[in-house]
Amino acid sequence: MSAPVEKPVKKVVLAYSGGLDTSIILKWLQTEYQAEVVTFTADLGQGEELEPARKKAELLGIKPDNIFIEDLREEFVRDYVFPMFRANTVYEGQYLLGTSIARPLIAKKQIEIARKVGADAVCHGATGKGNDQVRFELGYYGLEPDIRVIAPWREWDFASREALISFAEQHQIPIAKDKRGDAPFSVDANLLHSSSEGKVLEDPAVEAPEFVYQRTISPEAAPDTPAVFTMDFERGDPVAIDGVALSPAELLTKLNQLGHDNGVGRLDLVENRFVGMKSRGVYETPGGTILLAAHRGIESITLDRGAMHLKDELMPKYASLVYNGFWFSPERQMLQAAIDWSQDKVTGRVTVKLYKGNVTITGRESPYSLYDQDLVTFEEGKVAYDHRDAAGFIKLNALRLRVAAKRDQRS
After folding, report:
1. 340 in a domain, yes or no?
2. What are the residue ranges in the chain where pLDDT is below 70?
């Protein structure tokens, strides 16, 4: 039985950065698919001016009504970053998922635009070796099951960077001078982090050169005096620094600056990609590193032991779902509901000290604190705990161990 013939694509929404690769993709869609292209550029706090992307799209023949540029910083932090940090999410013990968590939001917006303009396809610029192709496409299909997905890196015949440059020159696509050769490494950035991969970073035995780092000064160059501040939480989310209320994006921006100035948040990692290979990357997550420590600090006095330990057991599963692109899956949403329920009393203030790359929580207080000084005190006369009760507790817990030990002695 032959495969069904796909209908011609009439209109496609492209995730467009304005860089060389996505500009080549834009022109390729026009020439290969003869399709009307709609560009979508997201401001996720990557720190770049986005108006050049609009001008470049216009230069390549895109109608003004087909150019979408959206500031998504608040939505990104409020609806994606903060929910993930409520779970204390860390992939493979180290990675704070800065790239992973941005992809579902971009996918969601592309689908929304596709519905608005009547597009029958969406397109991304992720390569066929990486995780992002999976994350984008799982997001697309999870929201619009019958959408047509175009992945140029899996379709076109360009075999080298030189071939891409030649195509760009043939179609008068502007090329920055440093793009005429291979870049020393590739960078992806948003308000949560920056990641650098490839080229000078491909050998995991060689230390990353200092010029790779963009979001942090080195811990050795950080001030000799620690930075100390407070962070307020409400229901698991940070809401203020030093008593000053801030929006989600403002707060993360402030934490990023504090982390940058004190050399906090550097990570040199070899990770396991979803597609099966290992990858070495240099990640910088200054604000996220502080937020994770602070959130665990406020949870330490407000979460019951059972809830805290269960959260820690669920977290690796949650992290894998985010890393692998299953943000819109029912299982991630089920886990999120449980995690969010646990945060009902995670309210209060922590004191944070930053010093030469280190984050230390030096104080915690909450109106919902479970810490009872009368229970833990060594002073007499304030006892709400009878030491003698411990004997029976220990013997009951030791019963199975004693039974097993007697069996082993007999044999």
Report:
1. no
2. 1-5, 177-184, 377-384
